[in-house]
Hints:
Blueprint: E1 9-11, H1 20-38, E2 43-47, H2 50-57, H3 62-72, E3 79-81, H4 105-121, E4 128-132, H5 145-167, E5 171-175, H6 186-200, H7 204-210, E6 211-216, H8 217-222, H9 227-237, E7 241-246, E8 248-253, H10 259-264, E9 277-280, E10 286-289, H11 294-298, H12 302-305, E11 309-316, E12 322-323, E13 326-328, H13 330-341, E14 348-351, H14 367-386
Amino acid sequence: xxxxxxxxxxxxxxxxxxxxxxxxxxxxxxxxxxxxxxxxxxxxxxxxxxxxxxxxxxxxxxxxxxxxxxxxxxxxxxxxxxxxxxxxxxxxxxxxxxxxxxxxxxxxxxxxxxxxxxxxxxxxxxxxxxxxxxxxxxxxxxxxxxxxxxxxxxxxxxxxxxxxxxxxxxxxxxxxxxxxxxxxxxxxxxxxxxxxxxxxxxxxxxxxxxxxxxxxxxxxxxxxxxxxxxxxxxxxxxxxxxxxxxxxxxxxxxxxxxxxxxxxxxxxxxxxxxxxxxxxxxxxxxxxxxxxxxxxxxxxxxxxxxxxxxxxxxxxxxxxxxxxxxxxxxxxxxxxxxxxxxxxxxxxxxxxxxxxxxxxxxxxxxxxxxxxxxxxxxxxxxxxxxx
Length: 387
């Protein structure tokens, strides 16, 4: 199977987007420049926060006017990121990004409203996808959360099915596993979808049509999963991957010996996003730290210190093989995309490095140029995977 023929996109959650005007400002300032640099079509993988979606739907002509504005800029859209509900660029996001979770009416309604918007933005004969959170953050999950989330998700599938009947546009939800969340590993995702299908009963085909997975390569690499085997296992289990987040994580090898690398990690401690840190011990066990912090770096404890490697949920540019004395999981990205190429269908592909503002020395980087390098590098990896 070949990769999707629709234009590659990058996720605009890298730009602030507290209003429709601010979303358009980000598109003008960065996305159009990236498109011009590439000299070929580019899709906008839009992040539309709850206030933005409400603003678009407040008037009958709101979404149509927004679609016209995209078209005037020569941009298309086939996927939305509906994981962050609120302000993804506030001073401190951390665990708040997982709220509201999938047990709530707020999360369900926001997702269906995003689908209404996307259905009007989709080009003719193109299906849409919406990525969403992996139910909840494990530390915040109450008893019975999975059962309650399944009920909401089945209701979401019904809403997406109604939208398809009304608009003729298929919009598919893509649940995105992430470290330390209720859905974290590939095995957890497969187990969950089997539960979901069982609960769906006579609605199973509708649920299978509308609910699938967003595979974030950074997240599964941080888990030390064999990403090619992971993608194959999902396919064998019948879990459809509706969307791929093309992304890389930070890696520190030989932490006990590599003091320079460990100290370099101090520059990546920051207050906005959660940076789950996972190590694989020499015996092959996985150990986890909720968030990268100075105290942990200086005194990580014996299990982390003696580990072969640490991987940190800090999205770094996908063209980078190294970040100073630290490495990245770029080789895993290559393996993942080669595995995606073998699927019998073509998931949406989206570059997602939302951390540019909090990277060390971020103020010295030209964001449009950095995004352009990422897109060029991704296109090269896709070309190599397709050969």
